[in-house]
Amino acid sequence: MYHYTDFDHAFLKERNAQFRAQVERRIDGSLKEDEFKPLRLMNGLYLQLHAYMLRVAIPYGTLNAAQMRKLADIAEKFDKGYGHFTTRQNIQYNWPELRDVPDMLDELAKVNLHAIQTSGNTIRNVTADHFAGAAADEVADPRPVAELIRQWSTDHPEFQFLPRKFKVAVSGSQNDRAVIKTHDIGLQIVENKGEIGYKVIVGGGLGRTPMIGKVLHDFLPQKDLLPYLEAIVSVYNLLGRRDNKYKARIKITVHENGIDDIRQRVNARFAQIRPTFTGVDQQMLARIEADFAAPPFRPADEAPYQNAYQHDPLFRSWADTNLSAHRAPGYAIVSISLKAHGKTPGDATARQMRLMAALAERYGHDELRISHEQNVILPHVHKADLPSIYAALKAEGLGTANIGLISDIIACPGMDYCALATARSIPIAQDIATRFDELKLEHDVGPLKIKISGCINACGHHHVGHIGILGLDRAGVENYQITLGGDGTQDAAIGERAGPGFSADEIIPAVERLVLAYLDLRAEPSETFLQTYRRLGLHPFKAALYPETRADAA
Amino acid sequence: MPKPFTPKVITANALLEGDVIYLTATGWTRDLAQADVLTDEADADLRLIEASAQTDHVVGVYLADVTVKNGIPHPAHFREDFRARGPSNYPHGKQEHI
Question: What are the boundaries of the region Disordered (chain B) (predicted)?
């Protein structure tokens, strides 16, 4: 866990004092909305459909128990008793009042949290693999690098008014759990002959023009990381299209100019600025790395786990879906599902947050993670403690055994909250989860990622869902388009549009037809939905989605 | 031929609470049923300019279509329906007080 220095504390305090004064000046009328809006956005404050929304960064998704408790306290004191974890490892409060926001930020600062650059045309919260530091398949923990980038990008004077927002994700593993190929910059830590470096991917993105990122550099030496990133953002800052909001992201810059041209420009800029980096950044990185040293893993008898696994079918089901392989013997990574059937994806009550904090403190080396899939992770848990953890989670509605299954749905807030949305997402997610729970099919169906966005901006990552759902407004009625075959992993792919959209009433039966068709089509039970789709293509799924069209054609 | 003018209300968000408000003959209300229904285009444009000038109290002023039943305005579009009620996943927002 990164420890704030005196500089960090002083910076945050000053920044919060500035924003407090800006809010006061807005309320007393000295600032008009046009003047205030960019200032509030720099500090994560949006005005949404029904209220203000404060987006708080959870850098690289890492929290300790004290921070999680503070998020719970804020939810109770200033909001309606819950928070919404987002697809970029942030938490959003949906109901703050303007006067309270400076107090909320001061409370957050007490536990080293902030909302800086969670909005606006800046470098946003740096995200990372939520299994960082724990995964068995990891080359290195991506969080020290993510923290270094956070510090470099925060208030970076050159990059406060970029053509558009800019998102960076870091993974330390070949297995991509951080969707790095759909970020403006995706970094993968790689090892070459014992030396650590980075594969640099640029120009990925979702939204109205989805693109898979392209490799800009195969192996960037560790010491060159910051000057190279600065060169990329600097090239984009000059070259990016400021004439058209929809063409302003770096994915379009890369697409229009070509990756080779961009590489040439980045190399030229890099040659210019490299000498100005004196190596202080590497000293800082070394200090940050020390903060992220692995906790002291303990040896213990796994018998309580084996015993519960053999005798408690509910525990077994949960263990089969919600645990992942840990690097340390006897340990497991626990994914806590915030997707109880029928509930809002990503929402946690203050009470649930406090329980997760308590479990992290008691069993999990004081560490929690937020995943971009809107779940909470206990990254370091000894298997001996799993039965106790499961019992505690279950009692608070957090014991759902559905990680990676059809009801583990990503959904953006959609038109229930978001001012940009064109349709609702949450009720669709709730209804799909409820329906498949009734059918008792989801464990049989196996790994299947449904991702729902309530508008073309794709916060719900629908393009990379195995089944993607996009909510649109068609002539004043909510309408849902399905895409198939998307993938957000190292084999990233953009889903194919299946055909005409469905009304809110039709979309749940349509998804059901798709999934039942998959059960018929799969070669064997171990062939996943995505594998079946890749083997057979769109056609048989399209036939299941639009049976009446097939009948008409016959 | 220009499209006939359909009934509208003026709506915005309150500066302090951020919640949805509607213009009445005398000020602002939090309840769509109390809103002033504008049926004349020139009048609506003028009222919009006046309302937009009240930047010390309100944010994001615009005209929203309504349908009028028994003299009471109802949202014409589902977005305005959500704004007038609140989210569908919790009983929060305006629906708490209905």
Answer: 78-98
